[in-house]
Amino acid sequence: AKLKAWYSQTLKANGGKATLVWSLAAGSLPPGLHLGTGGGITGTPTTAGTYSFTVRVADGSKPQNVATAKLTITVA
Quick one: pLDDT at residue 54? Predict the structure, then answer.
């Protein structure tokens, strides 16, 4: 049997005015992982595979500055 490992990674953005809010713009995280509004991806992945997704970050300025990034997580 394989042990399931806890995953924790915090996304970072350069620049922008506080407070930064993160969200999932497209695709999906591996099952068992969650993206918090503070940029933390945490949880215990439950299904092996390669998962591609796009994250979005928006800052507190008016109008908002928005950026996106395409990311991939591979669960062995």
Answer: 98
